[in-house]
Design a protein that fits this description.
CATH architecture: 3-Layer(aba) Sandwich
Number of strands: 10
Number of helices: 11
Oligomer: single chain
Number of domains: 1
Strand order of the largest sheet: 3-2-1-4-7-8-9-10
Low-confidence stretches: 288-294
Shape: globular
CATH superfamily: NAD(P)-binding Rossmann-like Domain
CATH topology: Rossmann fold
Distance between the termini: 30 Å
Mean pLDDT: 90
CATH class: Alpha Beta
Helix content: 40-55%
Length: 294
Amino acid sequence: MVSKAVVTAGTGGIGLETAVGLAKAGYAVTVVGRNAQRGARAVERINAGGGEPARFLQADLAVLDEVRTLAERIATEGELAVLVNNVGAMFQDRTDLNGVEASFVVNHLSPYLLTELLLPALRSGAPSRVVNVTSGAVALAKKVFDEVEPPGGYYGFHWYGRAKLANLAYTLDLAARLEGSGVSVFAADPGGAATDMTDGTMRNAKIVSPGLRLLWPLVRRKFERSTSGAASVAARSSIVAATDDTLQTGLLIGPQGTPVTPIKAATDPRTAAAVRKLTEQHAPIERVPDGVSN
């Protein structure tokens, strides 16, 4: 039987390069995205390398109802070997999605929901893997998760990092929860690349806190250096996490394709518990009979 992989936000940038890498590794890859034309081009490029035919599924991963519909379709198709939650977005201005701050929805609630809903398919396809793409921005994030948003002004880079921190904490907690199940769970830090998300967004000082704005020329140069690399290189961490059989579950794979130590907050049980409570409040999941979902 052919092993199947799903890559979200897989029609361009790091996601597409990840999908290409998984196809080369022998997986039948499904790329998920919003735009059908981009999806068709992505499938064409993946298929040009030979191997198992790829396909595109259209879904807006910023809409949780569409995430549920996507998960239901994939789950009905049976076993799944790899799920790469590559989706990510940063917002210059505060944006709501059904009453919830958009960065938290896209960068955490969406991949959380898709993962939990596909756990039965992943368990059926075991040994299988979940790879959640994180970011170095977690280091500058506020680390309190009593609410979706901490008090104070809205700064897109920090809110992005906070949502990614929530997802990283969830990822490591999930790895512990699923240990021994046959489903391995990893986080992957691509280290940054020139993608649609970083094009333009990282050049506006309003995305950082007032303190960093005072140092904006230095901060901007650092952003520009960190987002100037090739997406094919940035995809390395996700591809390694998805394919390297020597890796033990619960690792964070860094930009060089090797395990790195996550920040302390991501491994703090109190952070994981707070994130779980907040997540279940805003992305509830109906319990399944075998107790897969929390």
